[in-house]
Design goal:
This protein is of the alpha/beta class. The protein contains eleven helices and nine strands. It has two domains: 207 residues, 2-enoyl-CoA Hydratase, Chain A, domain 1; 49 residues. The strands form two sheets. It has a six-stranded mixed β-sheet, with helices on both faces.
Length: 275
Amino acid sequence: MAFTSDVVSIEKNGHVGTLWLDRADKFNALSPQVWQAIPLALAELSSDQEVRVVIFAGRGSHFCVGLDLVASGLEAKSSQKAPSEAIANLQQMQFTTAFQQAITSLEKCPLPVIAVVQGHCLGAGIDLITACDIRLGAANANFSVRETRIGLVADVGTLQRLPNVISAGHVADLAYTARDIDAARAEKIGLINDVYASFEATYAAAQEMAAQIAANPPMAVQGTKFILQQSQNLTTEQSLLLNGLFTMATSLKSNDLRESMAAFVEKRAPNFTGT
């Protein structure tokens, strides 16, 4: 069954798929319906053999202002008395775990994911973009680990993934102060790769980058993402062993490698199939 949702949408254009947060009227705040739909949308895109890269973007003026507290029922939960503290804690843990898994689906997507950020990227918005492989920002983008400011400890990925994106000192700065930083500062500290004049220019740059990625053999690109991610939890020696075994079992045996060699000899553009 094809993916359908009122709050998240997908587009496919050749080898590039775009996943849109589609709550522009709510500044793409993450309701349960939104974050529950994200893994389903990614599954739809990654299961399509034509799609090789995903762009992740938000409709409207802002990428994402964080968790929708009202739609998520947190305000109501805080005022309702559960049968016991244990039950209340269990329910909260189940909610948090489901939310965490939804964010993790971006990281675990086998395809490269490019985030396009404009306007506000706050709280859970940081969780979203740090789960992506590449982040591009419009000049009007601003970023904040907002949870600290409102009395929460960020708990769905920022504190785990942000240290893999920027240095420890910058992580501590953003997480402790909860201050807003603009796109120029975000680029300087490495939170985003590049800054563009407008959302339209940022999205166009993401499309161009996606096309460059999609022009490469899909198995090699996906294998590279796999090794990069696995290496974060391995020693250099362990990663090298995994890398060698993985390459020997996959890309060295692929039709795309043979096609690449043939195209080079025949002085023509290769036609990669992902096999």
